[in-house]
Amino acid sequence: MLPVAARTLQSIRTELSEGYRFVSGNKLPEAQTTFRSVLQALLLIVVSSDNEAKEVSAISSLNITLTHYTASGEIR
Questions:
Q1: Whole-angstrom Cα distance, residue 67 to residue 30?
Q2: E strand or H helix at 25
Q3: Contact 52, 60 (CB under 8 A)
Q4: What is the CATH number of the domain that holds 39?
Q5: Block means of pLDDT (10 residues each) for the chain, length 76 residues?
Q6: What pLDDT shows up at residue 57?
Q7: Is the whole-model pTM more than 0.90?
Q8: Which long-range contacts (CB under 8 A, 24 or more apart) does 53-62 make?
């Protein structure tokens, strides 16, 4: 197994913003790839507070929805 690079919550927020830009630019395959990457990164993140845990949970829920819609092409 390859080593995993640790990600910060801020780097995940930045990647999430990139995914939103892809959606705004109607680049749905890129958005889907970005949102999936965010979801995978969230599986391995370590949080240091209850607020961060809530934010990770909210980002996860939102990303599952966005990944579904970008895969189905329902975002226009």
A1: 11
A2: none
A3: no
A4: 1.20.58
A5: 75 93 93 90 87 88 72 59
A6: 87
A7: no
A8: 55/9, 56/9, 59/12, 59/13, 59/16
